[in-house]
Structure formats: structure tokens, C-alpha cells
Amino acid sequence: MIWTVYLSGEIHTDWREQIQAGAEAAGLPVDFTAPVTDHQASDAAGDVLGAEDNGFWRDHQSSKVNAIRTRTLIESCDLAVIRFGDKYKQWNAAFDAGFCAALGTPYITLHDADIVHPLKEVDGSAMAWAKTPEQVVEVLKYVTTAR
User: Fold this and answer.
1) Where are any strands of DSSP class E within 12-132?
2) Could you give the CA distance from residue 97 to residue 71 in angstroms, rounded to a whole number?
């Protein structure tokens, strides 16, 4: 079986690339998907439907266009990894975790110990909490190969 793993969350570090490189180096049977990680492109996703001067409505329009991708990829994944960084509040990542929980899609949270308290409900539904991308790769190794 080839596992599909959705990589959700913060876009300001290279955690996705670290997980992908680790999985590739280990020869894991995994395909990765992700949201649009180019911040400007994501913010402009709805602009194809017409220019919007009001920031609220521009964000609203773009979030709905982005949601087409996000929902489809989460609904079709076998497992999600949801990264919470310490610099920005990732409300979209928390929403993705809730969506996974509602669908019954297993997910792993990836974050530092200093934000355990604000993420207690999100972590409570997660199948694992990892502190490093390397730990995520080890979980992927075990669940995909039983090694």
C-alpha cells in the first residue's frame, strides 16, 4: 500500500522538506500532499473570481477557493501531519485537525512543548505528538512498514 500523507500547518520553515527527505531516504511507501504554501498565492487564490478591495471579502473569497484543495486532499489522505510553529498562530492548522477528527482521519501533531497547553484539545484527538520532523519519519516508518 502507498500511503498518502497530508502535510498541514505553518509555512515558514522547512519541516515539510525534512519529512519528505527522511521518508525518501528510508524508502517509505508514502506520497505527500499539502496546501498551497506560497503565502501570496494562497492569499490571492480568489482573485480569479474578480478583484475585491475589502480585505475581509478578499480573504473570504480566497479561503473558499483554497478550501477546495484542502478539503479534497484531507478527505483522500490516509494520515495527516499538522505542524504548529511558535511564531504565528495557525488557525487553519487547528481547523484542519478538527476536520481530520470529524472525518476519523488519523493525524499527528508536530510542535514544541511550550505550546502544549493551547493545543490540548487538538493533541487530545491526535494519534501522536511529535516534537521533530525526524520523529514523524519514525512514526511513518512504523505505520507503513511495521519496522
Assistant:
1) 30-33, 79-83, 107-110, 128-130
2) 12
What are the start-end ranges of the E strands in 10-68? Answer: 30-33
Cα distances (angstroms) measured from residue 21 to each of 9, 31, 115, 134, 139: 18, 12, 26, 10, 14
pLDDT-derived band at 81 (thresholds 50, 70, 90) equals very high
Give the list of residues 6+ apart from residue 93 with CB closer than 8 angstroms, or none: 8, 9, 10, 82, 83, 84
Question: CB of 101 within 8 A of CB of 125?
Answer: yes
- Single out the residue of 96, 71, 101, 73 nearest to residue 84, CA to CA: 96
Domains and CATH numbers, the chain: 3-36+75-145 (3.40.50.450)
**SS3 of residue 68 by DSSP:** helix
For the four alpha carbons of 76, 10, 30 and 114, in that order, the dihedral sign comes to negative
Nearest by Cα to 118 from 83, 94, 87, 82 = 94
What's the predicted TM-score (pTM) here? Answer: 0.95
CB atoms within 10 A of CB 130: 19
